[in-house]
């Protein structure tokens, strides 16, 4: 660091970058948003979640018996640059 107020560093691994996405799980199916950039994401996306009622009973009494959970998780995608190392092998 050049000074206490500077966020510049020469080490790219010490840079903090956030690439969040939302994952929704319901009835053994996983849905995912696109990956956003930054710590204040706004996806403005709609996920259409497929729903299957047991026995295909979509009546009020049939739907009221459903106990399936919806799980919503937020993850941070880790991006790693791949660097190729060109080495010359010497045969002795």
Structure description:
This is C2 domain-containing protein. It comes from Chrysemys picta bellii (Western painted turtle). Pfam families: C2. Residues 16-84 form the C2 domain. The protein is mainly beta and 92 residues long. The chain has a domain at 15-76. Helix content is 4%, strand content 20%. The chain is built from 1 helix and 3 strands; from the N terminus they run E-E-H-E. The protein has one helix at residues 60-63, and strands at 20-26, 29-32, 70-76. The protein has a 3-stranded antiparallel beta sheet, with no helix packed on it. A hairpin with a 2-residue loop joins strand 1 (20-26) and strand 2. The longest helix is centred in the last third of the chain and has 4 residues, at 60-63. The radius of gyration is 23 Å and the shape is elongated. It starts with 19 loop residues before the first strand and ends in a 16-residue tail after the last strand. Residues 1-9 have low confidence and may be disordered.
Jot down its keywords.
single chain, mainly beta, 1 helix, 3 strands
Helix content: under 10%
| Mean pLDDT reading | 81
Strand content: 15-25%
The gross shape turns out to be elongated
The oligomeric state of the chains shown is: single chain
Order of helices and strands: EEHE
Rg is 23 Å
What's the total count of β strands? Answer: 3
User: Uncertain regions: pLDDT < 50 for 5+ in a row?
Assistant: 1-9
Helix/strand structural class: mainly beta
Order of strands, widest sheet: 2-1-3
- Main beta-sheet strand count, sense and barrel state: 3 strands, antiparallel
Distance separating the two termini = 44 Å
Count, helices: 1
Pfam families: C2
Protein name: C2 domain-containing protein
GO biological process, one term: non-motile cilium assembly
Domain C2: 16-84
């Amino acid at each position: 660091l050049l000074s206490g107020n500077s966020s510049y560093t020469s080490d790219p691994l010490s840079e903090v970058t956030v690439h969040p996405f939302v994952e929704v799980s319901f009835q053994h199916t996983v849905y995912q948003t696109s990956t956003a950039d930054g710590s204040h994401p706004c996806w403005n996306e709609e996920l259409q979640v497929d729903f299957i009622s047991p026995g295909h009973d979509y009546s009020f009494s049939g739907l009221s018996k459903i106990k399936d959970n919806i799980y919503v998780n937020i993850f941070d995608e880790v991006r790693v640059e791949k660097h190729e190392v060109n080495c010359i092998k010497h045969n002795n």
